[in-house]
Specification:
Mean pLDDT: 81
Number of strands: 6
Structural class: mainly beta
Radius of gyration: 11 Å
Number of helices: 0
Strand content: 35-45%
Number of domains: 1
Order of helices and strands: EEEEEE
Helix content: under 10%
Distance between the termini: 15 Å
Largest sheet: 4 strands, antiparallel
Low-confidence stretches: none
Shape: globular
């Protein structure tokens, strides 16, 4: 794992893998910890992730 950030409310987790891809995890999802979506819109490898103070948005930095 290269980068990780929890949303302030603790229900979402953003991660960056060794491959440079960022994913958004819904840790409160009843289907288990495998519920996620890829963060898109990047041309290069993502190096870090962060959430806004209210946890509504996530940002990833190349």
């Amino acid at each position: 794992m290269q980068g990780i950030a929890f949303a302030p409310h603790g229900r979402r987790l953003a991660t960056v893998g060794q491959d440079g891809n960022a994913q958004l995890w819904d840790v409160a999802d009843s289907r288990g910890p495998h519920s996620y979506a890829a963060l898109t819109g990047h041309d290069g490898r993502v190096h870090s992730v962060a959430f806004t103070a209210d946890g509504a948005d996530a940002a990833a930095v190349e």
